[in-house]
Amino acid sequence: METRVETREADLFTVIRERQSIRGYDPNVQISEQELREMIEEAVLAPSSSNLQPWRFLVVQDPAVKAKLQPIANNQKQVTESSATVVLLGDTEAYRNADVIYDRAVEAGLSKEFRDSYVPRIKEYYTRLTPEAARSIALIDGGLVAMQFMLVAKARGYDTVPMGGFSPEKLIEEFDIPSRYVPVMLISVGKGAAPGFPKARLTVDEVTFWNRLDGIDR
After folding, report:
1. Virtual torsion, Cα 150, 152, 157, 162, nearest 10 deg
2. What does R_g of the chain's alpha carbons equal in angstroms?
3. Please, which contacts does 114-119 make with residues 24 or more away whose CB atoms are closer than 8 Å?
4. How many Å separate Cα 200 from the centre of its chain?
5. Inter-CA distances, 79 with 71, 116, 143, 155, 191, Å
6. SS3 for 214?
7. C-alpha distance from residue 128 to each of 115, 125, 134, 159, 186 (Å)
8. First-to-last C-alpha distance (Å) of the chain
9. Is 73 helix (H, G, I), strand (E, B) or coil?
10. Across the chain, how many H-helices and E-strands are there?
11. Nitroreductase domain location, by residue (predicted)?
12. How confident is the model over 62-79, as pLDDT tens digits?
């Protein structure tokens, strides 16, 4: 049964405070493909390096595919119980899309002169990156879009949990992921059936330093 949770009026600060990592889901609540598309559409408004948008989303909804993904994710039950699990990938060759992206930006009002000078610089810079540097950028940008997706889901009344506990090697093999893409994380999304763990956070004074790193752990 596909269920659309009624969108509520919640400000950003409420969403931030109420979002938790939820590991128990109601398997009877299924989010439609259309609503998942809307959530991704909102998530991809996140920033990225040179606006190259290296994120790619493999949305796993089919029960048979969920069953294949679960052992790859260390048998975490949310993979099969949640409405969907998003396999988030990062494209280490995202610069190949620079022409398309910046042509569309020109259509949206960007100066063509800027586009014509900037795109060649993008290609020159990113083609010279080491594999490690390209991977790092893809992972950082993936983290930005992942957080935005989770906040969007919470704003719509859904719950999520990001997962780093999976085998990238088995994921790549099972889903035939091309070598240019790096697995970033898995994100299960659905309607929580149980609350998350109580939150505990370090204080601002424990994590923040002003102008110099006085008192940081060494």
Report:
1. -10
2. 19
3. none
4. 23
5. 9, 45, 20, 21, 13
6. coil
7. 20, 5, 9, 40, 29
8. 53
9. coil
10. 9, 4
11. 16-191
12. 999 999 999 999 999 999
Domain boundaries, the chain: 12-93+142-207
Locate 218 and state its tokens: 């060494």
Residues 40, 57: Cα–Cα separation, whole Å = 8
Residue whose C-alpha is closest to residue 20's, from 165, 201, 210 = 201
- Whole-structure pTM value: 0.93
Give the mean pLDDT of 168-181. 98
Predicted confidence (pLDDT) at residue 165 exceeds the cutoff of 90: yes
Superfamily of segment(s) 12-93+142-207: NADH Oxidase (3.40.109.10)
